[in-house]
Design brief:
Blueprint lengths: L1 H13 L3 H8 L14 H8 L1 H26 L7 H17 L12 H14 L4 H18 L2 H21 L10 H22 L1 H9 L12 H9 L1
Helix pairs in contact: 1-4, 1-5, 3-4, 4-5, 4-6, 5-6, 5-9, 6-7, 7-8, 8-9
Length: about 230
């Protein structure tokens, strides 16, 4: 029941589609532009760096809030498995972000929301900032050398999964000794499923990468919405 509560709570927060909201504030439906996706990358390409940053922070923040809420609610009643419950809350956010029911279950790809999970390791795991730095570092190296957000996101997610296993095997998540292996295994399974989902959500990008047709993202490019308006004027 505690797992279900965390999933539902996270899903509710994940329904806050920052990209869609920012697009509406700017007078457009972001789903009608670019990749038709409501995530950070499409907002960056369509509306520019400022709004891309807002969406990135907004989507990451909702995951941090869910993780903190799970910790506040269950730290007293379920201290032995609080790390696992916080992961379930984060998983709920990612599911809500990717599959919002009121948008016909067509949301983002969960990368910015997962950044919130990586950020949360800074306060829930000893030396957890290293998990964040490893994942973000892998993403940054790939992105700034290739300009492929999709490839950077996939590599970053895989590195996050590997880092979680390495830290978990070194006792980072504080599970009690008598239940350590069972809870750790469940933790790895949930993280593995999230990683698989992230890769699966990028299946079209992977196909384009293989075929050499994947679009590159440049931080200095002109927002598509502005370019479209200029073309119509």
């Amino acid at each position: 029941m505690q797992r279900i509560i965390c999933l539902i709570m996270g899903y509710a927060l994940g329904l806050i589609q920052t990209g869609y909201i920012v697009g509406r504030i700017k007078g457009i439906d972001i789903r009608n532009y670019g990749s038709k996706n409501a995530g950070t990358t499409n907002v960056l390409r369509t509306l520019g760096k400022k709004y891309g940053a807002i969406v990135l922070l907004g989507d990451a923040l909702k995951c941090v809030i869910a993780v903190v809420a799970a910790r506040l609610i269950f730290s007293a009643s379920a201290p032995d498995m609080i790390s696992l419950l916080m992961l379930y809350a984060a998983a709920g956010v990612i599911l809500g972000h990717n599959f919002p029911f009121y948008m016909n279950f067509k949301g983002g790809k969960g990368i910015a929301a997962t950044l919130g999970l990586a950020l949360s390791y800074c306060f829930q795991v000893r030396n957890g900032y290293l998990i964040l730095l490893i994942a973000f570092g892998c993403f940054a190296v790939i992105f700034f050398t290739t300009n492929y957000v999709s490839l950077g996101s996939i590599i970053g997610y895989i590195s996050l999964f590997i880092s979680v296993i390495v830290f978990g095997e070194n006792g980072a998540f504080g599970f009690p000794e008598q239940n350590n292996r069972a809870l750790l295994t469940e933790y790895y399974i949930v993280m593995g499923l999230l990683t698989f989902m992230a890769i699966f959500r990028h299946k079209a990008n992977i196909k384009r990468l293989i075929e050499g047709d994947e679009r590159k993202t440049y931080l200095k490019s002109k927002p598509e919405a502005d370019a479209k308006e200029q073309g119509e004027s």
